[in-house]
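QA checklist item 7 of 12: single-chain prediction sanity check.
[x] sequence parsed
[x] length recorded as 168
[x] structure emitted
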Amino acid sequence: MEALSKTLQGVVPSIPDWGALFVSGISLVIAIISLIKSSKAQRLQNQVNELELKIKQNELDRIAKEKEAESLAYVEARFITVGKGKHRLKVWNSGNATAYNVTARFDGDVGIMIMDNEKQPFEELEARKSYELILVTYPGSSSKFKIITEWSDVNGKKYTKTQMGDIS
């Protein structure tokens, strides 16, 4: 009997040894769960960092575009009626820089004639300034038409804007 008890003691660990194994197993499971959660949190943090970087880059791009727009001229034109049968083509620079060699014209034959075409090209049109061209309309003139404005910036880069106009 004594031999059997010695054999069982060698094979079956004692209660304190089972407790240590149990605690070690629980610790291992907790460590694995912590590792998994930590790696998920790190991936999420990396995604947040990437999104933050993209947002900052978009903000920088927007600021650069706004700065560029602030330093550009922007020429527009409108057909206006100033009295019975009297019309003008008002051309103005709504940008923040001076426009050079400004011209305005109608696209195609619309039956409207610009009388003081010698004003064009208008050599320098400062920001928020305008000039007017006298127009003559004929019976049968188009009621809708396109107005094309062309100008260049200080560096000589050419710009064009096409707008719709109508005889009101």
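[x] summary fact logged: Residues 2-70 form one domain.
[ ] second reviewer sign-off
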